[in-house]
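Dear all,

This email documents one entry for the complex benchmark we are building for the journal club exercise. For each entry we list the sequence lines for every component of the assembly. Then comes the predicted three-dimensional structure of the complex as a token string, followed by one or two observations. Please use this as the template for your own entries, and keep the labels exactly as they appear.
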Amino acid sequence: MREVWWISLIKAAILINLVMAAFAYTTWLERKLLGRFQNRYGPNRAGPFGLLQPIADLLKLIRKESFFPQAAYDVPYILAPIVSTATALAAFAVIPFGAGWTISHHHINGEMANVSIALILLFAFGSIGVYGGIVGGWASESKFSLLGAMRTCAQLVSYEVSLALSVLGVVLMGQSLNLAQIVAKQGQTIWFFIPQFVGLLVFLFAATAETARAPFDLPEADSELVAGYHTEYGGMRWGLFQTAEYINMITLSALAVTLFFAGWHGPYAPLGPLWFFIKLFLMVSFFIWVRASVPRLRYDQLMRFGWKVLLPVATINAVVTALLVVWVK
Amino acid sequence: MILASAGNVLVWAVWMVAAFACLGSGIAVVSFSNPFFSALALIGNLGSLAVLYLLLSAEFVAAAQVLVYAGAVMVMFLFVIAYIGPRQESPWAGGPSWQAVGAVLAAGALMVEIIVVIGLKASGSLAHSAHIGSSFGTPSEIGRLFLTDHLLAFEVTSIVLLVAAIGGVILGAHARREQPSAGP
């Protein structure tokens, strides 16, 4: 059941553009929802319901002059946002969005890369993507950028551990690191958010911190650090950091849907990818809702919560799940 | 048949790129004067090593290499280097003489190893290709080996890591106790 290479190429091109479009309209959705949460309209000038706003933003960012600080180390300064975006896009390759189809004797997989190490690969891309922020902040040669980079570093390292441990329970129950197999297992048995709701809670906290979104947006806390690691960035280079950040949020939402909400499976009708996108939309909206509702943590609160609450809970959850899985067997 | 040979060319091309990236970044690590760039080159080195692991069908090792070494460990390196800030003088320039002796010995050992491998290859001892099952390098197979054939090594490694972690805490606490007298 192997995919022909040209099908993979076409699928990759479609998927990359879909993810980019999803990113563009996530920014629209976020601004619109934040607007409504705060009793205002949000973007409503460009096109009907402001739907052309992301495109107008893109044109504006591309046409801006791309200046940078004289003291900056130019090679890492330019490469940092590229690394961020490239790894964010690459991580989406392992997310399964369908069961796979056969159209006139050609097999099409339900994901870009069906590999046995899918989950580790996704985290590996995420851990490389972290360097975008750190290197970009360091190479800008500015105090605010450096402080933002340091915060990114400390926060992401702290919460990465909890994030990895929170999905361990799902891996133990699904008996695989292959995301497609985990989804298939949930289709046969039970959606894992019911037995693994502790894991889901830890995952949601850690994912919010990993994507540096409110209330964990300390790496770019605008009232303290101007803009954190991308203070000295402008134009499309800043736009690439923004792209990476939103795509990471979409990817982690998709991972939550895959690991805890059975991916493309759904009740009533076998809609396949449509179920996946509905759940993804709800998950992304949830992250936006959290951003609108919860104020930012203080830095010491963030560290204490990560190491003294989230990590022990995630560890206990993993150990208890392991014992139960062996015991039930 | 044509596709198979195209695949071989692809493997060869990827191997060439990864091998030269490995060598180049290795040289870059020791030749940059700015430690931040050295650390970045080390990340590149670990990354290209991961590609070489992938070519050996060790996919789990490759992903773990990127996740643990290129990801988590090197982030700590960069954090410390960026935190200390740029130093014009490199503190380890010159270095103690035992370091130089050790480096020469290690390089010599590697040299002997390479000569032995090339010799074996030339004499035909490595002519037959290894038989690799489809489960080779998968997480489940590696997990099985860790908990059966290599259990002792696995557990000893975990104890070594635990000792290192405790040692780090003790050293850090020691430094903190001495600080107040020197601080403001």
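Observations: The helical segments of chain B are 2-31, 35-55, 59-84, 97-123, 139-147, 151-182. DSSP finds six helices and no strands in chain B.
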